[in-house]
Design a protein that fits this description.
four-stranded mixed sheet, binds uridine-diphosphate-2(N-acetylglucosaminyl) butyric acid, UDP-n-acetylglucosamine1-carboxyvinyl-transferase, Chain, disordered N terminus, 31% helix, 2 domains, alpha/beta, 24 strands
Amino acid sequence: MRNTTSYTSEAFIIEGGRTLRGAIRVSGSKNASLPILMASLLTREVCSVEGVPHLLDTQTAFELLESLGARVEPDGERVLINPASVNNQKAPKEVVRRMRASVLVMGPLLARFGRAVVSMPGGCSIGVRSIDQHLKVFEKAGARIKIKHGYINLEVERIRPVEHTFEVITVTGTENALMFLSGCERRSILRNIALEPEVIDLVDVLRKMGVEIEIEDRTAIIKGSGELRGFSHRVIPDRIEAGTLMVAGFLTGGEVVLEDVRVEHLGNIIEKLREAGALVDILSLNSLRVKGGGNIEPLSISTAEYPGFPTDMQAQFMVLCSIAKGVSEIRENIFENRFQHAAELQRMGADIHVRDRLAIVRGVEKLSGAEVYSTDLRASASLVLAGLVAEGITLVKDIYHLDRGYERLEEKLRELGATIERLPQKDV
Ligand code: EPU
């Protein structure tokens, strides 16, 4: 796969006030694709992954796999990964800085080669995001960890089975631990694991590879194997893209049908949208319709691990609250610095007061178009949503954040009737 990854400062120009109508297909999940692509490192056999969205982050994942020595080839809808030739176990700084999820190579590389070297991820704009919980599992199972010159050096001769309780529920920490313990032929127990659908999608893949995994409540019992098989898998639909489009349909007073979703993964999002006044009709296990048009009621939202309300939808719902008929409260419990979009929304006329992890949002009559800056992936999505309902023109800058995680978002919104264009870097 070619290296197409680059940071640009392209922008979106949006003319607000259009009502979104129509049907749209949701892409495959970014956060399910990344660990599943990395799981290919556990085997020598060819792996086939379908539904991987075309994004900066998935391109970075392909580059990373190739830099480790794997062959990555697109084949129509699928990506084929041949990991037989992997001969390098180092994830360099340039890649980890671009995509934190690069740390997901630690578990599989350690399991297959007994060695991994990964640049230490720093904090990021949404919080400190330490990886201590990942390292604690590796260490308990016998890995030696040294941090030198900004790199984490991990080595293990033989993975010991563990009985371990995570102190913090972590998505990629759980994924790394599951991939790592897939290399241990004896039974391990992990408690207080993350149960996000993306984690369960990885579990499905690991089972296809020959790992025995049972999950009950927040406990996983896992028994790996010395020799894991290749797999063929289609990733689950992206529930955050689905949620973002649902908010777009509702906010603009439109009627949007989403296809290729997994309704069972959208429970909390549907519940909050209905509470806000949306009509959400479940058409099948894989499709639903969202209708807006009436009042937008204020909400009380508190982010939590799945099945709670996702932190990755908090920014988008803040837009909805900013034009609701009353005062909403949003509490961010997962990341300590995930309200940066609030300041940008204020530039568009929103009335938001942030104190620590609580945002009080007083609904205003209308937002007004302005020039705003993306600070992270979901913050960018919220600014696009705000632009769709604001009066006049909104310019959303630094949209490379958005390109990391949404496939063709502006095209999809245009198909639904939005007026949104991508401005090339030179015109911004
Ligand atoms: N944490 C620790 N120690 C650890 C790991 C996590 O203290 O070793 C803390 C974090 O600092 C954070 C909380 O635990 O406060 C939860 O972090 P988690 O590890 O669950 O986050 P992550 O695995 O790094 C994934 C998604 C994020 C999503 C979060 C929460 C991927 C690649 N990323 O991150 O997605 O917000 O889970 O659901 O799966 C996004 O797509 O925009 C995004 C940020």
